Protein 1
Amino acid sequence: MSNDQLPRIFIRTDEQARIPYFAVPPVASGGDTGSYAFEHRAVDAGSLGSHTFDAHVLMLPVGPDPVRFWSRLNGRPVSGLIEPGRFRFLAHGDTLATSWNAPLQGLFLTLPQALFAQALGDSVDTRPIELVSRLTPHEDRLLAHLLHAIQAYAMGQRLGGRLFEQSLLTAVAAHVSMTYGAGRRELLRGPSLPRWKQQRLRQFIQEHLSSDLNLNALAAMMNMSPYHLGRVFRATTGRTLWQFVLECRAKEAHRWIAAHPTLPLSKIAEACGFESYSQFIAVFRKFYGQRPSEFRRSL
């Protein structure tokens, strides 16, 4: 995908014009059109007039030094230091005007409202999730870890696969809803996954290893929300869903290599559902301690 085709972050001015977040292209960008957009930006000292985003936005400064800022959030003045490693969060619909007095680098992630309903589903009550902007820089190590993982995925290191990406976004949506939700609403605790449901899920995954096993499809098959399924699966098994899927694909590839000694490894990777040959090599080596080619030679 070329840079021109990658998802970008846009803002709306007071005149409702939809324009790119900054005229200067980002250092790097990625994401999934209609789902989320990620940008790594480096900008000089400057300002942005009154604007809103079409989605919730997480901002994580990554530059070397603090930068002083002056903002107006829904007309209310807010000022302070933009500090490296400390988040700022702007909820969809809130209006922001801001300026800063030195060059600034940051990671930006948009989270559309639809992502929360899709991700949390039956694990929260039926009221719409109301999020509250928080411009005062604050630390959140878990959220920073998730954002850097999304950065690695969006920048092309897609070893975890599509299911990994969806799991990350689901985890971010759940954490954001608790951290910035009005009243800091807690998610309901769910039960562990019953044995018969575990078996049903495992059988479905085994039968569809060569297909696109995305989190939404697995959740729909189980009649659960993506967030709830991921949470109870990990609580029950000690592993995430995407780790389990990758393990199943590695085991299937191991069996194929042993059973088909002349079949090209690229064909085996495709048959087992790996998204790329590099993912196949990395996952196989993780679970078996050697590359697929090395295992074949050992036979």
Protein 2
Amino acid sequence: MTQRTSRPPAGSGALPLDLETMRDSARRLLAEDAELPTAEELLTLTLTLRGHMMLLVPAVEDATRPLPEDDIPRACALACVGKARMRLNLEPGRTLPAGIAHAQRLARSVNALVDHVVNLGGEDR
């Protein structure tokens, strides 16, 4: 299976993003047939999703820079970035169900950010 990656901005020195792996991480919690993770798996998955978001947020911001300020896709992408930043600042609840709900919200942000990277032209074609 080929992996989809996004190209970093020219001259940025950043590595390409592994968008397929990021989507797979999100799918682990969001798929209809997803099995509930154990507490240990949840911690690992939450940290993984947070890491993906920390890579995706600047990638989306970089992808919006060349767009006009009144561009609707730009505004949508930046709104998504704002929501992702807010979610990164939240703490998971103390119970397993609260932690799962928190991780699911992170997973939805990962999916949305990946969509914006792709839609704004950051995906290898």
